[in-house]
């Protein structure tokens, strides 16, 4: 069932293009699904200012985060600015290649991996030209793909939560008394393609215990948001919580849609902002 949902997602993002056509689009535009001017407009609308000439951290937004979860992009930028974390971003950012991996099997897969390695080298070259020491991904899928494909750069490719939690490690955090349902996510979309690596999901969950007046109820991780998002929301409602939160940027899309008008669904960066006493623009 989850595999069928994944296939539907692949068909949607392929948008009638062959894999070769999608690869050429990435080579030409960087983005898998949008021309550069649309990406620039989406980032500007989310409050992403002019990129610094140099910085230790290079943000990679992903092909779809600026469009499907602009509230996550906004909150990430606000957090980094509040925490005085140095960052820049790339005017042309190459796709992580995950949509292509979903379309390749057998002998084709090695050729696709080779193309993706080229895209990732391109990102590193652009980032290092700006003095960046690590690439920081706003998309969980992109971060996973980068770690899985670039073995020699694994530690230099980070999910945005790693950078944020490092910056918050010594901060006193608190919220207005709140009980949330935490969905850890099954991560099948990207872990199924690259099972040899994983993001630090245990850390993301454990960090919530540091937030004063926040009580967390864990939901089962056996359900996939792509096919069971309604059931995941129902389980949260059965717990009588105030809100839901998940650390996976991809899960947030489906659960937010399923919870619309029923329960508040927060992104992880949104919860971090509230723990600093700041109201998120993306609060639902």
Care to describe what's here?
The chain is of the alpha/beta class. It contains 14 helices and eight strands. The protein has helices at residues 2-14, 19-29, 36-45, 65-68, 70-82, 98-101, 107-128, 140-149, 160-168, 188-191, 201-207, 225-238, 249-259, 268-275, and strands spanning 57-60, 88-89, 134-137, 157-159, 174-183, 212-219, 243-246, 264-267. It has a four-stranded parallel sheet. Strands 6-5-7-8 form a four-stranded parallel sheet, sandwiched between helices. The longest helix is centred in the middle third of the chain and has 22 residues, at 107-128. The chain is globular and about 50 Å long. The model has no long low-confidence stretch (mean pLDDT 93).
Spell out the blueprint of helices and strands:
Blueprint lengths: L1 H13 L4 H11 L6 H10 L11 E4 L4 H4 L1 H13 L5 E2 L8 H4 L5 H22 L5 E4 L2 H10 L7 E3 H9 L5 E10 L4 H4 L9 H7 L4 E8 L5 H14 L4 E4 L2 H11 L4 E4 H8 L9
Shape: globular
Instruction: Calculate Rg over CA atoms.
Output: 18 Å
Q: What structural category characterises the helix and strand content?
A: alpha/beta
- Main β-sheet, spatial strand arrangement: 2-1-3-4
Q: What is the helix fraction of residues, given as a range?
A: 40-55%
SSE ordering: HHHEHHEHHEHEHEHHEHEHEH
What is the arithmetic mean of pLDDT? Answer: 93
> Given the structure, what is the number of helices?
14
The biggest beta sheet reads:
4 strands, parallel
The overall strand count is: 8
Strand percentage lies at 5-15%
User: Which spans of ≥5 residues are poorly predicted at pLDDT below 50?
Assistant: none
Which assembly state applies to the chains in this document?
Answer: single chain
Distance between the termini: 29 Å
